[in-house]
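Researcher: Structure for this, please.
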Amino acid sequence: MNPFSQQLLISYECVSAIGVSLHLEEMMTHFLKTFSRKTGALAAIYWKADTQGFTRVCFYGKKAFIPLFSPPSYNDKTTMKREHKSGKKLLHVKIAEDWIAFLLEVKEEELTHIEAIIDSFHDKLENAIRACKNHLELREINQTLERLIEEEVHKNREKDKHILQQSRLAQMGEMISMIAHQWRQPLGSISTIAASIRLKLTLNRLLGSSKEEQEASKVFLEESMNRIESYVQFLTHTIDDFRNFFKPNKQQERVSLPQLISKTLEIIGKALEVNGIAINVQVYETKAIYTYANEVTQVILNILKNAEDVIKERSIQNPHIYITIKQEDAWQCIYIEDNAGGMSPEVLEHMFEPYFSTKSEKNGSGLGLYMSKIIIEEHCKGKILANNGSMGAQFIIKLDGESHQ
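Model: Predicted structure, token format:
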């Protein structure tokens, strides 16, 4: 084979070895190995320029030859330079800011051919190295972005936990007010019973002198004690409702939407009644679903409490809250609408944003509806919507009727 044909073959083999990988070390190791085998180079090395000078990326050949290699000066502007060491020839080739060096044992004429071969694929090799570096830089940027996104997601989750805690504390205050409404009547009844017993004792009429009076007193005391026990059970049940309301669901439970409404009205119903607000509940076709019942109850309670506040603020005559339960395709839906006249487009637009509230500062934190959206859409995989109905603000809670444990 004549020298020109041999040169073309070597060039072709080397060009084929360039760009086989976007991993810089892997690509350059493959190139140095191919070039050394085809040209008879004893060893080859690649240095990458960095802020500290040059860093060796890869080496091919016997390790005993490594001490013979050293990168040229960082400011060296030559593209290709020869050097003699230990009776052998070192050929340095600059590729952009980097350097490649080959240790050869050849005649000057052969070295000239090798330089011509390198010159034939120099630009391609430079572009391949740049592509590898760009690929590495892009990977590092992506990793940085992934880390930043993960940090932001973590911050948002912590923020949501904090907001949820704030929301629950706000609801606790509202719940205490509701408990006060529920307790007022039974506590008043217990007080009345105690006053009646004390009056009979004062008048010496409790024990009685005749058998008939004693029997009547016994019946009176038994009835009084039964009524007190009944009221105490009611008070205990109210406290249990309060405690369970704020106990997080660890697992979904099977429950029907009418049960959720009933459970919520047991908590807030008395407060609504005291404020003269009538509740109208209509139940159409529906079925039980698996969901986080306590969390959904919190959302329903929050919507009802908002409706109560708006009705009171606007002094609505003959106030009503209408609750409709029905099935729509795969969704089990709860519609809650008041008759307080509705909301402006500006309020509707920002309804579910954190810290947005139309109430006065002392009455609203702006967290309730934001957390309601988090609970329904993220925890329960449902939907919550707000719009204006025919009489006032309407909220729609949609829960997946196909979900199961």
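Researcher: Any notable elements?
Model: The chain has eight helices and twelve strands. The first strand starts at residue 43 and ends at 50.
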